[in-house]
């Protein structure tokens, strides 16, 4: 089992989208059955590996249509706005990395008036659990991956963060999930993460004050 990256000083936060920032009712078990994909196979990979180009495009469009329908019914997750407001107040950059198609991701984000400079979808990079999109954001921000927290609700999020050398935060949404030990931080909702980041900022300011008090005066 992978040992999660320690969560120390966080200078940037990247979010998953579905059931992290906004709700999603996507039933991938049902969709796999409809598309002939086995339960233990990644659906996107299954479709990408179909040799018949016409059939592959047809199934890709089926998934996109399903995602767009879900996007129109989505709602903002509890404490999402409070967390984003706090991060903005602290000048901590934020981004979204999702396995969604770009159309659905942008529809959800714009519909709920969420603001992100970077929105990375599966059309841009290999989808999670591949770390490519997370590594890209780290380079754009010019931050060490160890100082960027990736927040999500599924095991793919934790695996992608680990492969990118980033700490991860698992939002359980009150569920008993079997992969919690793979996360650096586990919270029941986004409000729990806000609390942790506030505590971290307070401890950092206290440490800074102690250092300044110990600096000898030049007089």
From TrEMBL:
Keywords: Hydrolase. Its EC number is 3.1.3.18. InterPro entries: HAD-like_sf (IPR036412), HAD-SF_hydro_IA (IPR006439), HAD_2 (IPR041492), HAD_sf (IPR023214). GO terms for molecular function: phosphoglycolate phosphatase activity. It comes from the Bacteria. It is an enzyme of class 3 (hydrolase). NCBIfam families: HAD-SF-IA-v1 (TIGR01549), HAD-SF-IA-v3 (TIGR01509). This is Phosphoglycolate phosphatase. It comes from Photobacterium andalusiense. The lineage of its organism: Bacteria, Pseudomonadati, Pseudomonadota, Gammaproteobacteria, Vibrionales.
């Amino acid at each position: 089992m992978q040992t999660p990256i320690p969560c120390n000083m966080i200078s940037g936060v990247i979010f998953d989208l579905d059931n992290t920032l906004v709700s999603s009712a996507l039933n991938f078990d049902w969709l796999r059955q409809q598309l002939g994909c086995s339960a233990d196979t990644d659906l996107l990979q299954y479709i990408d590996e179909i040799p018949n180009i016409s059939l592959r495009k047809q199934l890709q469009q089926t998934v996109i249509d399903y995602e767009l329908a879900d996007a129109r019914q989505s709602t903002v997750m509890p404490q999402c706005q409070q967390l984003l407001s706090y991060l903005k107040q602290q000048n901590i950059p934020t981004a979204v990395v999702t396995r969604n198609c770009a159309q659905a991701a942008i529809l959800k984000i714009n519909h709920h008036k969420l603001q992100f400079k970077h929105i990375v979808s599966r059309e841009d990079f290999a989808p999670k659990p591949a770390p490519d999109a997370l590594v890209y954001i780290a380079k754009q921000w010019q931050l060490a991956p160890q100082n960027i927290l990736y927040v999500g609700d599924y095991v793919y999020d934790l695996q992608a963060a680990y492969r990118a050398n980033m700490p991860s935060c698992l939002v359980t949404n009150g569920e008993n999930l079997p992969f919690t030990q793979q996360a650096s931080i586990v919270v029941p909702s986004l409000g729990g993460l806000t609390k942790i980041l506030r505590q971290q900022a307070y401890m950092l300011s206290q440490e800074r004050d102690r250092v300044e008090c110990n600096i000898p005066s030049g007089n």
